[in-house]
Amino acid sequence: MVASGNGSVMNLLDPRHRVLRIPGSFVTGIERREQSPFASPIPPRQREAAARLHTSRDGTLPFNGGAVRLDAVKSDSSAGLELAISRVEFFDFLATNCARTLPESWDARPGTYRDVLADTALANIIAVSLIIEDSEGRIGIVKRSAGVHVSSGAYCATVAGTLDHADFEEADPFAHCATREAAEELSLAVPEPQFDGIVISMQKLQPVFLYSAVLDAPWGELAERIAGATDAHLETDALIAVPLDRCVAFIAQHDMTDVAAYQLWMYVTERGVLADNSG
Q: 173-186 vs 219-227: helix axis angle to the nearest 10?
């Protein structure tokens, strides 16, 4: 059941203005760097204090797990992307990107994605965002629980999560993370999600790899399986099935993360249903 809401100022923005888009249609190569160029401007003790500011609404303290940084992106004439990645930690992200201590030269916001990736004082850990459509043409939109430390209470794509050090070693770290998160959060098998590009969220200046998938069953038939997922009750308050022709209205009426709003808007636009959402 969809909860009513008045939304916020962010909901009035064109979703395309809520992210920085990295041009490119597919990944052609990945350089795994043993030494990260990230140079934290925050001393260790201050980093721990900054992380504690992100204590969740239910009082849970953050866990400093391994994360993966997007160090560089090079694009070629065929829309291919060559990426460089390295290992960092989740607390690095909380103390830099989430603190939003931006360089004075940015004048309150970066101009392009290159500004973000070139700043070695930002942890820039990689996340994935996976939109899943069921067999009845409904998108699963998740309301994040109070137990998560970033974007708690916000509405997100069906599946979202960050790469860890195990993903780093995989042939395709990004698709592997999307598949792993779908299994952990919803107990769903999504072996080959479609890659839909990379954006950087304006809220957290975080690089996010976008994916989508279509199921061969309706959400109602999957409810029992989803309820038994490993992280179902830890990260998700509700999963709402929204018809394609109601998605844009949902964006305007609910507090969605920057990436989820953009990804959902692009998904329905590319399927020609944007005009049906104007009412």
A: 80
pLDDT in tens, 182-197: 999 999 999 899 999 9
Give the helix ranges, DSSP H, for 132-245: 165-168, 173-186, 219-227, 232-235
CA angle in degrees (0–180, nearest 5) for 106-107-109: 65
Residue that is written with structure tokens 């995989």 in the block: 170
Where do we find the tokens 């400093």? Answer: 64
116 vs 110 pLDDT, higher one: 116
Helix (H) or strand (E) run with residue 216 in it: none
Q: What are phi and psi of 136, to 5 degrees?
A: -105, 15
- Which residues are registered as beta bridge partners of 270? none
For 116, which DSSP code? H
Backbone angle region of 93, left / alpha / beta, with phi > 0 → left and psi within -120 to 50 → alpha: alpha
pTM, rounded to two decimals: 0.90
Q: What are phi and psi of 218, to 5 degrees?
A: -80, 155
Count Cα neighbours of 264 within 13 Å in the Cβ-side half-sphere.
Answer: 33
